[in-house]
Design brief:
Elements: H1 2-15, H2 17-20, H3 38-45, H4 51-59, H5 67-95, H6 101-128, E1 147-148, E2 153-154, E3 156-158, E4 165-167, H7 168-187, H8 196-219, H9 233-238, H10 242-246, H11 254-272, H12 288-307, H13 315-343, H14 348-362, H15 371-396, H16 404-422, E5 433-435, E6 440-441, H17 449-481, H18 488-493, H19 495-500
Antiparallel strand pairs: 1-2, 3-4, 5-6
């Protein structure tokens, strides 16, 4: 009976959004995504063009995606996959006890695969097509319309430059990797005690009702080419996601990815409960070597995650690239300094954790701040996240197994707020677009750090509340249907054997 209920619940997670939907980052040229239905809109815009117009169209063909941009975006997509499998899997796997190594690897790999399939079925459509300010529509269910197999043509959509399209299929694949790794981040919070089936069902529900709305609210907008004159600005803005309309800046996912996942993980740590022996037994990472390998792969892959979010191989991709380099290095140094001051020694685990903290914090800021601002964000994040996994964790009292909230939650909040500070031209930032008709940036004397930080804080607050509420409901549903955690006996023996019937290491 439980298996039947589980199947029904999973089916609901797949198909319910179609009914629900009926009822990015920000106004900067370096937000993380743009609406990708421009081809459809263009084809419907002038159904009865005159002969002179047709002649003019023939004389000036529509722009086509640049091959260099396309190559960069395909590479960026591969790099984000590298971040997840094997990067995140090995990073998490090395941190748990040896008897749970394979369970974590399985949860990451299978969860990533599940989310990619759901993305193809309905996720992309509800995140990145026009609907309302909270959720998209059904225009791209099952990825319909991405290409015409008879004519051999491919749909194109907007980047952040006027007249510079990209293949929508490439954008959809790139964003699929974001959705996949976000769900996998949550796994670290409840590692070593959750049922495998429960983890998958929760992630399907959470992806549907938290990730997709937040992604739409932050990143969906009409694209620069839609802003043809001042007369259409209000209309185009009204079609965007709510947080994008506010003007929040999130280059590659500080809110959508890190804070969103961290809150879900923290809620899970509370609702699933502490591991058997927590606070009484040592929970020593079984392989810091693998954790180091995983952290290194994360750092390499993160260049695709951040620099790829420019959607073009241009200057903003280069800015995001060097910020991902410098801020991460600064966070490693900050964490090591903090550990040395606190404990007298800097650890390998600390250095790896510092790298991830820097990567998380620079994510919303990568193409939105100058190099100096990126360094400051990295240093601040290193110290802040060290406090997050030590002092804050003790205050909260939850068994967040692999410190998902301490690193991704704290780092994401720090990065999101400081983006509003260092985006300022007075502090070396590129500013934000103030007028998409002319693509004019906000002038230095008109940029308000206080106003932008307030907007960033509102985006952070909405993400925390939305993800928190959805997570509580989703965990409760899973607990009623399947039960959330394994038995104490199975937990003590280890999930590798009890959940998967195999072991990572043979003696």
């Amino acid at each position: 009976m439980k298996k039947l209920l589980a199947s029904l619940a999973l089916a609901a997670a797949v198909f319910a959004p179609a009914a629900w939907a009926q009822d990015q980052a920000a106004s900067a040229p370096v937000a993380a995504s743009a609406v990708v239905a421009a081809a459809d809109a263009a084809s419907a815009a002038a159904p009865a063009a005159s002969a002179p117009a047709e002649a003019a169209s023939a004389a000036a063909p529509a722009p086509v995606p640049n091959k260099g941009d396309t190559g960069w975006m395909l590479l960026s997509t591969l790099l984000v996959i590298l971040m997840t499998v094997p990067g995140l899997a090995l990073f998490y796997g090395g941190l748990v006890r040896s008897k749970n190594m394979l369970s974590v690897l399985m949860q990451v790999m299978v969860a990533f695969s599940l989310i990619v399939v759901l993305w193809v079925l309905y996720g992309y459509s509800f995140a990145f097509t026009e609907g309302n300010q909270f959720i998209g529509g059904t225009d791209r269910l099952f990825m319909k319309g991405l290409w015409d197999n008879v004519a051999g043509t491919f749909a194109t959509g907007a980047t952040f430059s006027k007249g510079v399209p990209m293949y929508e299929m490439v954008f959809a694949a790139f964003q699929a990797t974001f959705a996949g790794i976000t769900a996998c981040l949550i796994v670290g919070a409840f590692a070593e005690r959750i049922k495998f089936s429960a983890a998958l069902l929760f992630l399907a529900l959470w992806f549907t009702f938290s990730y997709l709305p937040i992604a739409h609210m932050v990143w969906f907008w009409a694209g620069p080419d839609a802003y043809t004159s001042a007369a259409v600005v209000d209309e185009m803005n009204a079609k965007a996601g709510m947080i994008w309309q506010w003007g929040a800046l999130d280059f590659a996912g500080g809110t959508v990815v890190h804070i969103n996942a961290a809150v879900a993980g923290l809620v899970g740590a509370f609702m699933i409960g502490k591991r058997v022996g927590y606070g009484k037994e040592a929970f020593t990472p079984h392989s810091l070597t693998l954790t180091m390998v995983g952290a290194s792969l994360l750092w390499v892959g993160w260049f695709g995650f951040n620099a790829g979010s420019a959607l073009e191989a241009n200057g903003f991709a280069a800015l995001a690239f060097i910020n991902t380099f410098a801020a991460t290095a600064a966070a490693v140094l900050a964490w090591c300094i903090g550990e040395a001051l606190m404990k007298g020694k800097a650890s390998m685990l600390g250095a790896a954790s510092g790298a991830v903290a820097g990567l998380v914090a620079i994510t919303p800021a990568a193409g939105n701040v100058g190099i100096g601002g990126g360094l400051v964000i990295g240093f601040v994040a290193g110290f802040a996240c060290l406090w997050g996994v030590t002092g804050l964790k003790k205050v909260i009292g939850a068994d967040d197994s692999l410190d998902v909230f301490g690193v991704h939650g704290v780092g994401g909040i720090v990065g999101a707020l400081l983006t509003g500070v260092f985006n300022s031209p007075a502090l070396g930032g590129p500013s934000a677009v103030g007028d998409w008709v002319t693509v004019a940036m906000i002038a230095p004397d008109a940029y308000s750090i206080g106003a932008q930080v307030l907007t960033q804080a509102k985006a952070v607050g909405v993400t925390i509340v939305w993800s928190g509420v959805v997570s509580v409901i989703a965990y409760k549903i899973v607990d009623l249907v399947l039960g959330l955690r394994v038995s104490e006996e199975d937990e003590r023996e280890g999930l590798d054997i009890t959940s998967h019937g195999e072991t990572a290491y043979h003696k």
